Amino acid sequence: MRIAYCTNVRLPSERAHGHQIAKVTQALRDIGHEVEIFAPFRKNAIDESFASYYGLTDNVHLHHLGTIDGIAAWWAPGVIGLKLTTFLFGRILGDILRKRAKEFDMIYTRTPELLPVLSRIGVPLILELHRIPRLGRRRFLSLIRSCSLIVTLTSPMRQALIDLGVSDIPVIAEGDAVDLHDFEAVPDPKATRDSLRVPHGMPLIVYAGQLESMGLSKGIPELLDALEILAKRGLEFRSVIAGGPENVAEHFRETLPEVFRTRVTFTGHIPHLKIPTLLTAADVLVYPAPKSDHPFYRRDTSPLKLFEYMAAGRPTVTADLPPIHDAIDETMTRFFPAGDSIALAECIRLTLEEPEASARRAKLARAHVEHFTWEKRMIRILQAARIAT
Known about the structure:
40% of the residues lie in helices and 16% in strands. The chain contains 15 helices and 15 strands. The mean pLDDT is 93.
């Protein structure tokens, strides 16, 4: 099958969406399909190729269309710049795909803003939906009916679409996934711990992921509060918190209490290929979250880091968010109420003090994540699309 993957994001990108696009397209190629990616021209500090930055096994055809980066333009700030980039990109993309329509069997996108263009190409269309827009919902619901299949990241998002009246086209839930090959042949955890200057026998508590995204907290203040509770109780530990944006990481570094200066390290962004090395060296992997009724936490999130945590085979503690239960349950992790730093601290303590029970949970999570590889995910999606068409 010949597939056109269309997106309006910067590629390559240090953000999770770039990694997700890379893994989806690589998985499609690995199961025997031809893929071309169409993305807008964007100014980029990353000077590596798409394939090398994400460690892909072969090159993917990536077309950067246009010559104006509206997001970087001083005269089109913020949301206006994004809309301008999407508009200009959409015009060029539409012209190209209409001329090449017979060359593709399917169009795949995670960008609802491109549906007005893609719906007119006349090629079966799959929409991978990462959020349900709050504004322009009536038009959005009209546009998605041009799709052959909608893939929501979570089952609560799927139910929300059905509640909005989307019952005349197939909607399936498929969260993010993991590349288990990334966790093969990782360095000796002892060597990693030595490089991080973690004393022998001292617990290492790790978070790896974005510190903020789309203006939303990822629970780092709650994690720091939990670590402070543990320190006051006399627990000796080291903690590594990896991820960007860099300005947010720098803010946390500058505002760390003195007691944390030697205990907590904010690394900033690290290359995704190095994340398995960090995760497999941890004693506890933490997925925190704030207490919030925002749809991201209650409905939309399917975090890449959780699947990576499971693949690492290390004990985890996890904020109890409704969408998380699509991937993991209480037999595989210790849950704590989102935003509750005291409960988070207690979960970390129990995980460290009950190593056998923690190891059993980690083993079950590692076995369960075998169902969530990128290849298996894309096979399920394409099978659903064939049924739909």
